[in-house]
Amino acid sequence: QLAGLAVIAFGLWLRFGGVMADFASDKKSPEYFFMGLYVLVGAGAVMTTVGFFGCCGAARESQCLLGAFFACLLVIFAAEITAGVFAFIGKKVAIQEAQKIYEDTYDDYMKNPGGKVNGTIYRYHLALQCCGKDTTEQQMGLPCPENIQMPKASNCLVEIQNVIDAYLHLVGIVGIAIAGTTIFGMIFSMVLCCVIRNTRDMI
């Protein structure tokens, strides 16, 4: 149950918090990449529910409930693998789409520096700690956050790639940890089920 809640919290944070929240709120957000996160959150919700029934099955020593618990964990494990596949397959597409969102916002700002897009591009710069697409653009009047390290953080297209790579690394670590927990849960549920059956046969 705790692992399921942790997965839900982590998936929602990646989807609606941090740097990716700025791109997720855009109409052209990279939904293909977020599909993996949706599956991850769904798996976490199922894990939380299934964990409760697993506890009931162990407390009642019910082979039926423990068998159902094992089957549900197997489905969750498959969902976690699917989420990982979606995240890593969609990596390149997500980077390209996120970079295109920034480039479109950048072009809109250049056409109308005083418009509403001024706040949008500044929000991107603040979240990514970058400014523009090359080292000369900070002098062109772009809204850049203070105290950013130039020129390392001057290319926002590179920073977008770095951020998505880092997030995918986190998803991979959490996915491996939760998958390991799921495997142990399946093993223990089967062991407990066999012990209960053998005990009843002896009686």
From TrEMBL:
The chain crosses the membrane at residues 37-59, 66-89, 167-196. GO terms for cellular component: plasma membrane. Residues 1-21 form the signal peptide. It holds the Pfam family Tetraspanin. The keyword Transmembrane helix applies. It is found in: Membrane. It is a multi-pass membrane protein. InterPro entries: Tetraspanin/Peripherin, Tetraspanin_animals, Tetraspanin_EC2_sf. Keywords: Membrane, Signal, Transmembrane, Transmembrane helix. The keyword Amino-acid biosynthesis does not apply. Belongs to the tetraspanin (TM4SF) family. This is Tetraspanin. It comes from Centropus bengalensis.
